[in-house]
Amino acid sequence: MVVGTADRKLQSLLELGQLIGLDLQLDEMLLQIARKATQMMEADRFSIFLYDPTSHELHTTVALGMGHRTIRMSADSGIAGCCFSSGETICLEDAHADPRFNRDAEAETGYRTCTLLSMPLYNRAGEPLGVTQLLNKRHGVFNQEDMAFLRLFNNHVAVFIEMAQLQRARIDALEQSRQELERLNRAKTKAIHHVSHELKTPLTVVQGNVRLLKRSLEKMGDTRWQGNIETMERNLNRLTEIQRETNEIMRVSAELEAGALLNEVERLRQRVEESGSMPAPVRRHWNALCAWLSREFSNGPLSVRRIALHPFLQKLVQRVADLVLERRITVRAEGDGKIRLAMNSTVLREVIEGALKNSVENTPDGGRINVVFGKRNEKVYINVVDYGIGITEENQRYVLDGLFPARDTELYVSRKPYQFGAGGKGLDLLKAKLYSERFGFELSMMSKRCEHLPTDRDLCPGDVALCHHYGNDEGRMSCGQTTFTFTFPASEPRGRLSRKKVRGVAA
Questions:
Q1: Axis crossing angle, helix 226-275 with helix 427-439, rounded to the nearest 10
Q2: Residue 275, domain member (yes or no)
Q3: 3-state SS class at 143
Q4: pTM above the 0.85 mark?
């Protein structure tokens, strides 16, 4: 009979080890451990008291028979406190006969304790974690065999608790980091918005003064400064364009945040209604709140039309081809001429044009770019493919994060847009990513770096005619390739906030 009991306990220990390996959710797993302990040790109740060093207390949410109540006590009081403080196992045949026994819990719960076994719990470093406690053995009293098995049991439990606490500490640290990053991101966004707004006025003033200076010099017939004036105008125009793009990105970001807020309000309303009927006065206030949010954050209705992709993309490609005519880059669009896409034409033009601009600036003179469109799995896709230098594997992870230059910043020089190696700031791709979140299409990127330019500090001559590797078929195969893919759903896009529907209110 004794052998059978021992075998059953050993089997329970094996099952406990398997159970612990499945999950690191502390509270739920402790409850399952407690149930396994009462079964294995043939006790009526089992509790795990964990030590809280900040308050010097023992606490438990796992005390079978106590529901979900949390019990807290000083780490020096009661049988559990004495066990924790002294590090000794305490086994009592009559708990009431021991002066250390705390009767307050019994008076509150009405549960009477007779036999008791309490044992300290240690981590792998020998530091105290808490105490395990068995109450009221069903047959007889707790004995040496019970103590031996509880010690083995505690070893299993201690490993799990230590892992779970480490996991929880990591999760808490990650959550704290996430909150800090959100705070820093809000501060950064506010600062960028302020700087962008402040730049607009002085840029306008400087541009006006440069134009006046240019006219004065022309009237005087002085051409010595013509090159300097043109350089100033070109760079001022670039700064103005960056300021305009930044303002647009800030506007789109604000709409995305507003959309997330409205979605959260709608989810909260649904949860409230699921828990019970919403009173009429509350519903009126709720609808008023939704209406205010929509008015506050909306920027007008979205104009959506069905776009015939072939002529639309042909026109866009031709415009880009004209801009880079002197660079001898071949830009083509090909695909199913019957495909139509329900989309805002301005948004579509900006995202494809932005991808083309990035492709042109990373393709050497004499190279080629293809825009391929079609349908796959009932979704419309547009691929912008360039056969340029490609993007290094390290940089590919960050390109779509926005405001990330795919070349070493120190290597940039001041060049016009659409020139090879122009000093892009990633604004076009950031805008495309924000638009994809706002209008419900997908943006992805694949790239193969030219094997002769392994790092972003390796320089391309900028012209395929000057490349020693491009002159043969094998050399062309080893060159880079980058594909930006835009995938649009079959249904119409989500649209701006003004087209969203919030229960009872047209947002």
A1: 20
A2: no
A3: coil
A4: no
